[in-house]
Amino acid sequence: MQRLQDERLRRMLALCARGHDYYRRRWAAAGLDVPSIQGVDDLERLPLTSKQDLMADPEAFRLRLPDLPLHERALWEVSYTTGSTAEPTPVYNTTHDYHAYLFQSRRVAEISGIREIDVIANLFPLTPAPMGAFQRSVTNAYAAGATICAALPGSPHGSFDVHRPLDYAVRTVEVHRASVLWGVPSFLRRVLLRAQELNVDFGSVRMCAISGEATTPEMREELRRCLRALKAAGTTVFDRYGSTELGAFAQCREEGDWHNPAPEIQYHEVVDPATGRRLPDGERGMLAVTHLDRRGTVLIRFLVGDTVSLTRAPCPHCGRTSERIVGPVVRGADLVKVKGMLINPGALVAALASMQGLDEFQVVVRRQDEADPYSMDELVVRIACRDEKLVPQVVAQALAVTRVSARVERVEAREIYDPDETKVKRFVDARKPLTRT
Ligand SMILES: [Zn+2]
């Protein structure tokens, strides 16, 4: 495998040296002798690429080589990365890249047990910019030979009235006898809860394939609890780790590590982001990915933003030997500072999502005195619930997860969400940024 990776890396770097604006400039400025890089072991000599580098000039990351065959040049689709504060960033995929994603998805399906008899319900929202998770649900189904349908939820926008409410998602699953629910965990939970309220037959469902939000073991258990309550055919929660730039990694069993499904097309390192030094397997650091065989947006030593570790030991469950990402995956972009402490609001949101009896909730960071931008931060959890005994439990949960004490406010559910919205804003940072002078 490494011989193949070395060969592909040399080819990839040669293509970048000819037709990749960003790396041509960056490597020339650093005086690097790129042809002397013979394989993945020499990658350390190349600089890291940050998300900011890509966001600043996404066009400069596209290969532009008019002499390549048509399928390597033709633009097949553009996905946008979401979650950043700025405009979403386009990631370009040529026909070649689309085929590579089909190849990778077939492996993901094999590893995670998605089969051709499956019926996948795509419950990802219809967003203003095309989101990889939505577009690729179809590609994953094609690759597995499975059937797919979509519920088109999301906050309404545009003039064609194509978004559908929550109950339509419940109906889609029932009508098509879907076996796999594919979407964001908090929305899947709402679909499962609504199905219970409506007493709908979800007996065909055997798996929730989740991505797009950080979850805790408790949240995943909550999804299983809902599936059991619905007498579903199975209760598997398949947690996909991935991103628009990477594609998905696969677990061969629940709560397991994430296998790189396609080492032929991407190489991973765990690095020290300050120096670019590669860290040994088992040590935690930032995940960096290098594309070995791409033609649209090409990234070399790209910092995904997550802290993880890697192992290359054969998987104790399935015996596969490609590298595995070992959690917990801590998403750098998800951390915020509250009272000087770095907290992960996603983890708190996930912990609250799994609490019984909370109708709705929202985590807010704000200043104690709104008028005074220098006043102390405050972590507030707004909850809607019938039982006031939940208040001290929420206080304890927030402290356990964030190590910051939170103030809990009881509000009406409708103050937190509009029933037609798919994605409730679970976390709000209401602090006005301080102006630097
Ligand atoms: Zn395995």
Describe this structure in words.
The model has no long low-confidence stretch (mean pLDDT 90). This protein has helices at residues 2-19, 21-29, 51-56, 70-73, 95-112, 132-144, 166-175, 185-198, 217-229, 345-353, 390-402; strands at 75-81, 89-94, 119-122, 147-150, 180-183, 207-210, 236-239, 241-243, 247-249, 258-259, 266-271, 285-291, 302-311, 324-331, 336-338, 341-343, 358-367, 377-385, 406-410, 427-429. Helix 7 (166-175) packs across helix 8, helix 8 (185-198) runs parallel beside helix 9 (217-229) and helix 10 (345-353) runs antiparallel to helix 11. The chain starts with a helix and ends in an 8-residue tail after the last strand. Helices cover 29% and strands 24% of the residues. The protein is globular and about 65 Å long. The strands form six sheets. It has a five-stranded parallel beta sheet with strand order 4-3-5-6-7, with helices on both faces. With 437 residues, the protein is an alpha/beta fold. The protein contains eleven helices and 20 strands. Zinc ion (ZN) binds at residues 252, 259, 315, 317-318, 320. The site of zinc ion (ZN) has 6 residues, from loops.
Major β-sheet strand ordering: 4-3-5-6-7
Residue share in β-strands: 15-25%
N-end to C-end Cα span = 53 Å
- What's the total number of strands? 20
What is the mean pLDDT?
Answer: 90
What is the gyration radius calculated from CA atoms? 23 Å
The low-pLDDT segments are: none
With helices defined by DSSP (H or I, 4 residues minimum), what is the helix count? 11
Largest sheet composition: 5 strands, parallel
Q: Which kinds of small molecule does this entry bind, naming each only once?
A: zinc ion
| Class per helix and strand makeup | alpha/beta
- The gross shape turns out to be globular
Helix content: 25-40%
